[in-house]
Amino acid sequence: MMPLVVSEIVRETPSIVSVRLESPDGSPLPPWVPGAHVDVQLITRHERQYSLCGDPADVAGYRIAVLREPASRGGSHYIHSFLRVGSRVWVRPPRNLFALDDASSYLLVAAGIGITPILAMARHLAAEGADWRMVYLVRRPDDVAFAADLDALGDRITTHASAEDGRLDLARLVSDTAPGTAIYACGPQGFIEALSALDDELPSGGSIHIERFEPKPRKNRPNEEFTVICSRSRITVTVPEKRSMLDALRDSGVDVQGSCLRGICGSCALSVLDGQPEHRDSLTADEESSTIYPCVSRSISPQLVVDA
Ligand code: FES
């Protein structure tokens, strides 16, 4: 992980701060494109994923934003209560599971703290001269974060404050898009589940792309013990019924990254060379996928062979 230093903290709303992170010696940071996130580890050892919401052309610093979560005793609580300019954090290079695909037009939908990746996308699409618009859902008008950045992007952005404007009709929002529109959305779980159930409302050629902060609700098979053969390290690992595959691999000395441990960040991805994985993550769209996220996923077949 890269040691970075907090160079600026800005209160964006009563419950959101943005944090700028820079290299201690001013050296440029690894590049990223809109939709990317970083794993941030605090001095408390809490590790969380945050979308990058700054400008990719600004190689001197990353910008993230953090919502104060009243129940948090971890990352959110620490950042809001104790993080200061000059504090040190540790960051993995950006990964992107939410990149913009080519489309004839774009609808960006942000709810609450979901503004973070969407802001970077809006800035990029505006710079590219793309056909785009954005809807930003908040509870009250003073919950709007990055107001100056959004103003600078012009009148393609509509803010919807539910306390004043009522509940937004998401089905209508989706069905009113032009054919071929790519919808990119990020926000709390209820909003994401509601939006991802609206595929049938899409005009032809449209698509919905979502970024989750919380794992997708799933019904899993009962856990069973299985065996993993690691083809590169030539280690065979038994995964007990009550232990995750990631933990079992690490217990046996297999070097596998991991960050969220909830199947949403993608950092623990492994390629399956043989066997049938049981995907329990929130990233896999195709049940036949040969990428497994061992922090949560297991095996249907008694044995898996993975590239590790
Ligand atoms: S550690 Fe995040 S997906 Fe596995």
**Protein structure class:** alpha/beta
List cofactors, ions and other ligands: FE2/S2 (inorganic) cluster
How can the largest sheet be summarized? 7 strands, antiparallel
What is the name of the CATH architecture of the largest domain? 3-Layer(aba) Sandwich
Mean pLDDT: 95
Count of separate structural domains:
3
Shape: globular
The helix count comes to: 7
CATH first level of the largest domain: Alpha Beta
Question: What would your notes on this structure say?
Answer:
The chain is α/β, with parallel strands linked by helices and about 300 residues long. It folds into three domains: about 1-95, Elongation Factor Tu (Ef-tu), domain 3, CATH 2.40.30; about 105-210, Rossmann fold (3-Layer(aba) Sandwich), CATH 3.40.50.80; about 225-305, Roll (Ubiquitin-like (UB roll)). It is about 15% helix and about 30% strand. It has helices at about 75-80, 115-130, 145-150, 160-165, 170-175, 190-195, 245-250, and strands spanning about 1-15, 15-20, 35-40, 45-50, 60-65, 90, 95, 105-110, 130-140, 155-160, 180-185, 205-210, 225-230, 235-240, 270-275, 275-280, 290, 300, 305. Strands 1, 2, 3, 4, 5, 6 and 7 form a seven-stranded antiparallel β-sheet that branches. The protein has a five-stranded parallel β-sheet with strand order 10-9-8-11-12, sandwiched between helices. It is globular and about 60 Å long. The protein binds FE2/S2 (inorganic) cluster (FES). The site of FE2/S2 (inorganic) cluster (FES) has 13 residues, from loops. FE2/S2 (inorganic) cluster binds near residues 258, 259 and 281.
